[in-house]
Design goal:
Layout: H1 2-15, H2 22-31, H3 34-41, H4 45-61, H5 67-75, H6 87-96, H7 100-107, H8 109-119, H9 124-131, H10 139-152
Length: 154
């Protein structure tokens, strides 16, 4: 049921077409590495706005998080740029699951995003957190992943 609530909140958020403020954009730019900011800038408005909300929520849970983790909170959905699905198709992909190439890519956006970040030279911690490539023996990073996922449950 929480998945339906999550989808409904994201859909309502997608209807808000207001741009990010210059202050928000400058704040993101100050956190991300230059190539990461270039990638973030290619994200659709809905994902940029969502990323800022997730970062704020993440910092409430982990106020002393290292910068690589904060960058991961902003970039956690960057892999969705490779799929290019609109809001309605994202809802359908979430409901239908990994059927077909595009929906499968949508569901693999974390791994895709991690790979994109690795290719541009992001910090290993950042791309691993985005990709979810954390071993069971990495308790500190597992706590960060848990906090990131909680912050993403909007």
């Amino acid at each position: 049921m929480s998945n339906v609530f999550h989808l409904a909140k994201r859909f309502v958020g997608a209807l808000d077409r207001r741009e990010l403020s210059q202050h928000e954009i400058k704040s993101v730019s100050a956190i991300l590495l230059p190539r990461e900011f270039e990638l973030w800038s290619t994200m659709p408005l809905i994902d940029k706005k969502h990323s800022v909300v997730v970062m704020r929520r993440f910092l409430k849970v982990m106020p002393l998080a290292e910068s690589a983790a904060v960058r991961a909170s902003l970039l956690h959905d960057v892999g969705k740029t490779k799929v290019n699905l609109g809001v309605a198709m994202r809802v359908l992909a979430t409901v239908a699951g990994s059927r077909g190439v595009r929906f499968s890519l949508y569901h693999d956006h974390e791994a895709i995003g991690g790979q994109m970040l690795r290719q541009i030279g992001s910090d290993e911690t950042t791309w691993r957190l985005v990709a979810g490539e954390i071993g069971d023996d990495e308790s500190r990073l597992l706590q960060v992943v848990k906090a990131l996922r909680a912050a993403d449950e909007i």
